[in-house]
């Protein structure tokens, strides 16, 4: 079991314990499920061989917190995309050079109670930054 999986599992367990205390009884029916994800960014074609890997965990429901430095903004961005990492849209205003320095990102955990396992490799950091503004910005 990887560190990211253990952290996500611990966060989900903590959420289960906190949820009844954190949310009023009348509002609990509005919560569809917990959302806790481990995010990884690495320099390379795959995370297996990537250099300089960084990991952050993000909890978006029922509370927003985590090791991600911009948890609130990242959760907002993911909520707008319906938890679908392929639908993340940054501002896309950067003009990127045609330099191949791949960046691989991944997300593992749960979103709205459903299992998430996603990975993508971008040609360089600039292209990655055009795709999302906050989720992988750590």
- Class based on secondary structure composition and strand pairing: alpha+beta
Taken in chain order, the helices and strands follow as: HEEEHEEH
Could you tell me the strand content as a percent range? 25-35%
Helical content band = 25-40%
Would you identify the CATH architecture of the domain at 35-130? 2-Layer Sandwich
Categorize the overall geometry.
globular
* CATH class category label of the domain at 35-130: Alpha Beta
Low-confidence stretches: 5-31
Walk across the major sheet and give the strand order: 3-2-1-4-5
What is the quaternary state of this protein? single chain
Summarize the biggest pleated sheet: 5 strands, antiparallel
What brief labels describe this structure?
single chain, 138 residues, alpha+beta, Subtilisin Inhibitor, five-stranded antiparallel sheet, 3 helices, globular
Overview of the structural elements:
This protein is an alpha+beta fold. It has a domain at 35-130: Subtilisin Inhibitor, CATH 3.30.350.10. The chain is built from three helices and five strands, in the order H-E-E-E-H-E-E-H. The protein has helices at 3-22, 71-80, 125-131; strands at residues 35-43, 51-61, 65-66, 103-111, 114-122. The chain has a five-stranded antiparallel β-sheet, sandwiched between helices. Strand 1 (35-43) and strand 2 form a beta hairpin. The protein is globular and about 40 Å long. The two termini are 23 Å apart. Mean pLDDT is 81; it is low at 5-31.
């Amino acid at each position: 079991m990887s560190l990211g999986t253990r952290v996500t599992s611990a966060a989900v367990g903590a959420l289960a314990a906190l949820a009844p205390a954190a949310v009023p009884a009348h509002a609990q029916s509005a919560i569809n499920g917990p959302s806790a994800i481990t995010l990884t960014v690495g320099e390379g074609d795959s995370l297996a061989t990537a250099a300089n890997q960084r990991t952050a965990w993000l909890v978006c429901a029922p509370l927003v917190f985590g090791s991600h430095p911009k948890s609130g903004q990242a959760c907002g961005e993911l909520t707008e995309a319906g938890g679908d990492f392929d639908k993340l849209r940054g501002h896309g205003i950067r003009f990127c050079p045609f330099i191949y320095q791949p960046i691989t990102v991944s997300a593992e955990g749960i979103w709205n109670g459903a299992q998430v396992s996603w990975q993508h490799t971008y040609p360089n950091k600039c292209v990655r930054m055009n795709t999302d503004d906050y989720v992988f910005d750590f």
